[in-house]
Amino acid sequence: PVRSLTSGNAGKERTLAMIKPDGVSGNHTEKIKEAILESGFGIAKEIVTSFNEDSASRFYAEHSLKKFFVSLIKYITRGQVLVMVLEKENAVADWRSLMGPTDAQEAKISHPNSIRAMCGLNIEQNCVHGSDSLQSARREIAFFFGDMSSGSVNFSILNYISGLI
Ligand code: IDP
């Protein structure tokens, strides 16, 4: 087939994917990236970083009143994470579907081919994150990679600064 030279990003959607500390320390990174590429996603951006309590609380602000919040912050700050911007048509929903349900134990039964079934341990330690809507995707991509148009401060710079204080 002849490929258009000007196709660029036309029709593509972006979502934020993250391999959480249990995924990185359990050496699941390569397997997960293979599954991502095999499913037709492009990896537009990638960064290895880590959360501190402050950045984690901001990232998960919508869960701040939940019972599991303190435990979630402890889990997500315990090691490095690999953050990626994935690109393809229908990227938000397709990455959620490839991840599988939040509870990795449930995933092993209902979605045995999902990433959470493959690498997750339970409802908390489920090895991957994915934006749940286009709006969250935009917010989360800007959180890590900055967004020149809104003048937000880059995540790694914030992390660096809070490390100095
Ligand atoms: P999601 O990651 O599948 O979108 P959310 O409900 O947005 O799920 O929750 C964010 C993260 O918080 C989950 O991925 C998981 O790590 C953790 N979490 C969610 N529900 C629970 C729970 O009931 N107990 C402990 N941790 C939870």
From TrEMBL:
What are the catalytic residues?
Answer: H129 (pros-phosphohistidine intermediate)
Residue spans making up a coiled coil are none
Catalytic activity reported: a 2'-deoxyribonucleoside 5'-diphosphate + ATP = a 2'-deoxyribonucleoside 5'-triphosphate + ADP; a ribonucleoside 5'-diphosphate + ATP = a ribonucleoside 5'-triphosphate + ADP
**What's the protein here called?**
Nucleoside diphosphate kinase
Query: What EC number(s) is this enzyme filed under?
Result: 2.7.4.6
Q: Which GO terms describe its biological process?
A: CTP biosynthetic process; GTP biosynthetic process; UTP biosynthetic process
Q: Where is ATP bound in this sequence? A: K20, F68, R96, T102, R116, N126
Enzyme class, broadest EC rank: transferase
State start and end of the fragment within the whole protein. Answer: 19 to 183 of 211
Please indicate which superkingdom the organism of origin belongs to: Eukaryota
Ranges for the Nucleoside diphosphate kinase-like domain? 12-152
Q: Does Cytoplasm show up as a keyword for this record? A: yes
Q: Name one GO molecular function term.
A: metal ion binding
Q: Which family does it belong to?
A: Belongs to the NDK family.
Q: Where are the transmembrane segments?
A: none
Q: Which UniProt keywords apply?
A: ATP-binding, Cytoplasm, Kinase, Magnesium, Metal-binding, Nucleotide metabolism, Nucleotide-binding, Signal, Transferase
